[in-house]
Amino acid sequence: MATRPSIFEVARQSNCSIATVSNVLNNKGRVSKEKRKKILQVVAKLGYQVNSVGRNLRIRRTETFGLLFYPSCAEIFKNPFYAEVMQGLEAQLTRVGYHLLLAGYETSTTNSPIPNFLLSGKVDGMILLGRFPSEIIQVFHERKTPLLLLDANVEWPVDSIVSDGFSAGLQIVKHLADKGHRRIVMMAYEWEDYNIDLRIQGFLSGLQEQGLPGDEKSVIRHPGDDQSVTRQGTSHDAMYQSLKERLKGPNAPTALVAVNDTLAIDMVHRLLRDGIRVPEQLSVVGYDDDEMAQNLVPALTTIRVNKQELGRVGAELILKRATQPKTPVSKLRLPVELVERGSVADLRR
Amino acid sequence: MATRPSIFEVARQSNCSIATVSNVLNNKGRVSKEKRKKILQVVAKLGYQVNSVGRNLRIRRTETFGLLFYPSCAEIFKNPFYAEVMQGLEAQLTRVGYHLLLAGYETSTTNSPIPNFLLSGKVDGMILLGRFPSEIIQVFHERKTPLLLLDANVEWPVDSIVSDGFSAGLQIVKHLADKGHRRIVMMAYEWEDYNIDLRIQGFLSGLQEQGLPGDEKSVIRHPGDDQSVTRQGTSHDAMYQSLKERLKGPNAPTALVAVNDTLAIDMVHRLLRDGIRVPEQLSVVGYDDDEMAQNLVPALTTIRVNKQELGRVGAELILKRATQPKTPVSKLRLPVELVERGSVADLRR
DNA sequence: AGCAATTGATAAAACGTTTAAAATATCAGG
DNA sequence: CCTGATATTTTAAACGTTTTATCAATTGCT
Questions:
Q1: Confidence check: pLDDT of A74 > 90
Q2: Given B97, B104, B145, which is nearest A90 (Cβ)?
Q3: Which CATH fold would you assign to the domain A64-163+309-334?
Q4: Residue A195 Cβ < 7 Å to strand C
Q5: What is the pLDDT of residues A76-130, one digit of tens each?
Q6: What does residue B150 show for φ and ψ, rounded to 5 degrees?
Q7: Span A44-53, pLDDT tens digits
Q8: pLDDT tens digit string along B251-298?
Q9: Dist. CA A117–CA B51, nearest whole Å
Q10: Which pLDDT belongs to residue A232?
Q11: Range with the lowest mean pLDDT among A152-161, A312-321, B216-225?
Q12: What's the burial of A331, exposed, middle or buried (CB within 10 Å: 0-12/13-18/19+)?
């Protein structure tokens, strides 16, 4: 474990001062052709690499963001949606020399509600991934640290980016209406969540736009266990019961819009198991375009979210915020598109 | 964004030197009762938190490890197995004040085969997660940086921890033999992978131990697309064909041991689809105890790996390596247990 | 040639800590 | 009251950079 050469060693072997070496390395100041060449030679020979810690101390930035998961690493990691988001986020950040420091909220905050690495200045800002309670978001907001809500939003002026669930609602209803559907019902979790609300609003506006009947009864919601999305527990049961109830009536819906693919796929499985044919008896539309959506039989018509792009744009948002604090707050909605597969029936024929 | 108070400010308001403040904060040296009390008061009043960057520069450690994914973040994140491992790893590290810096191999290494944050001293060591090509592992090994192979192993003296696939093989075969099975076949990917080899060796030793016939024909392997585990592509097809071929013969196996749950579950689905009853006609055993294993019908008998523990112990390994470099290399196997569910038939009745 | 402007290089300070060594204060024993 | 021992505190260096201000050398212009 030979100790790495410092900038002093480079300067010594180049017969110049460390300031000149630094200038060459950072393309600043003015340095003569010969000196520059000599220095670069020595750098190459020694395999010199700048020491980030010294650098960070001086420039008062760490070029690192904290990535915080709620409630824990495992809960977030298990969701394949976030895997892609992470990929886009990480790729874009490393492209500009930034890094990600990782933590689950529950483990990183024993004394203070704020993770230790933020308090101790190891990061330049925080990226929040997951369904954080708004009290927690507030704590960060008050601290005035660069902050990004990724795939989430909140009423206060905090940078955020979500997929455009509103536009999705319009697109879905238009698609269904075009296929002759007139009685459409949506299904969503009862949780307080910006994305859910957005998608419901889009759905209801879509109904209005297409001149279809719609009221609070058009959305099936059930208070579930307020746990991770991966746990398809009692709330799915309850929602399915409501759906079946609805299907019995004389004005049974012909199409179901699920708030995400996990829910949609589970419902399709339950329907098929009960002998209700999809899409012939009930069409189903999802949201997210998870990998499983294609493998479902019938393949799921759903809303495609460019998850990597979500991460990529998120990265740019927080970079901007961290480097130019005066930038006005951005609340972005990433455009989405409907991808048509086999789970929607055409009623016009 | 008021600038945070430094140790100087604390010292000034406590009428003492920064050395004394530092001593109090780190419980070193000898400080009088009164001074200590006064200093702690000021610290509390100012909300002072040590600046990690300054500290890290001085102590020449960052108290951070790099967590490297291969090939990319998304590929690893998508695997729920790693989600739990990560959880255990992160929890244990934060418990002792350490952190994780994150990167996908493909994105973090554009010029050099070594990620930038390691070269620039942002981390004290590297944790490798995923099926890294051994050439890459070699590069790290030669660099003599603290290194941990998590859920992987290699011939060189590098700390590593895997689940005990060998013991698993013995347990599985014993379990099957106890239930009256005598013709057992295993199925695994063709990839070069330590875990796969270990599990196969355990399986073959198990056959021997139980006095059952076994040779190279007892293991169905197929060269698949050398891609992520989540992609159940052509290799599954080929392996299933081989299996069906084997089932036709007069000496058809009565039990199948799959190298992991993903493979096991996919095979069960294919078998059921073809009208072959599980476990009546063919018993199936998996490995990993993924979440899906319980939901399968029939529920999958498999090997339970304590994934969080895998991460936890891994954390301790690399901590030890980083703080006491002379420690002899550890190659650990985490004990596993067979969990009996419904996918193995009892042939004795 | 003399003066101003430009270019090239450097010294030194600063970033926020920890820690070894030095300095000072306190105390007990003769 | 002096001496040596011990307890407490401080000084100053070091960690590896970046950057400002300064200095020296070169060039352009009259």
A1: no
A2: B104
A3: Rossmann fold (3.40.50)
A4: no
A5: 888 889 999 999 999 999 999 999 999 999 888 777 889 999 999 999 999 999 8
A6: -105, 120
A7: 999 999 999 9
A8: 899 999 999 999 999 999 999 999 999 999 999 999 999 999 998 999
A9: 10
A10: 55
A11: B216-225
A12: middle
Hey, are the CB atoms on B121 and A57 less than 8 Å from each other?
A: no
What is the structure's pLDDT at A76? 87
Dump strand ranges (E) for chain B.
64-69, 99-104, 126-129, 147-150, 160-163, 184-189, 219-222, 255-258, 283-285, 302-304, 331-334, 337-339
Contacts of B54 in chain A (CB under 8 A): 57
Query: Tens digit of pLDDT for each residue in A210-247?
Result: 999 988 889 999 865 554 444 556 788 999 999 999 99
Report pLDDT digits (tens) over A15-35.
999 999 999 999 998 999 999
User: What tens digit of pLDDT does each residue of B88-108 get?
Assistant: 999 999 999 999 999 999 888
Torsion angle, CA of A70/A73/A76/A77, rounded to 10 degrees? Answer: 170
- Homologous superfamily of B165-305: Response regulator (3.40.50.2300)
Q: Map out the domains of chain A as residue ranges.
A: 7-50, 64-163+309-334, 165-305
Q: How far is CA A210 from CA A178, A181, A220, A349, in A?
A: 9, 11, 20, 20
What Å value separates CA B37 and C1' D10? Answer: 19
DSSP B141-210: HHHT--EEEET---SSS--EEEE-HHHHHHHHHHHHHHTT---EEEEEE-S--HHHHHHHHHHHHHHHHT
Superfamily of domain A7-50 in CATH is lambda repressor-like DNA-binding domains (1.10.260.40)
What is the predicted pLDDT for the residue at A229?
46
Alpha-carbon distances of A221 from A160, A188, B208, rounded to whole Å: 26, 5, 57
Closest CA relative to residue A63, chosen from A109, A101, A27: A101
Strand C contact with B297 (CB < 7 A): no
Any atom of strand D under 7 A from CB of A323?
no
* Amino acid of residue B280: E
The pLDDT, as a whole number, for residue A228 is 45
Q: How far is the CA of A315 from the C1' of C14 (A)?
A: 31
**Gap from B338 CA to chain A (nearest CA, Å):** 23
Statement: the CB of B101 is under 7 Å from strand C: no
Per-chain mean pLDDT for chain A: 93
CA trace torsion B25, B30, B35, B41 (10° rounding) = 20
Q: Which nucleotide lies at the shortest CA–C1' distance from A36?
A: C8
Strand C contact at CB of residue B7, distance < 7 A? yes
| Alpha-carbon dihedral B304, B306, B307, B310, rounded to 10 degrees | -130
Q: Under an 8 A CB cutoff, do B51 and A82 touch?
A: no
Counting Cβ atoms within 10 Å, is residue A309 exposed (0-12), middle (13-18) or buried (19+)? middle
**How many A/B residue pairs have CB atoms within 8 Å?**
133
What pLDDT does B225 receive? 52
Distance measured from the CA of protein residue B17 to the C1' of nucleotide C20, in angstroms: 16
The answer to whether the bond into B279 is cis (omega within 30° of 0) is yes
On the question of a common fold for B64-163+309-334 and B165-305, the answer reads: yes
- What chain B residue is nearest to A62 in terms of C-alpha separation? B53
Give the best residue of B57, B61, B99 to mutate against chain A (max A CB count within 10 A): B99
- For residue B226, pLDDT over 60 is answered with no
Q: Which nucleotides on strand D sit less than 7 A from a protein beta carbon?
A: 7-12, 14-21
Residue B334 has pLDDT above 50, yes or no: yes
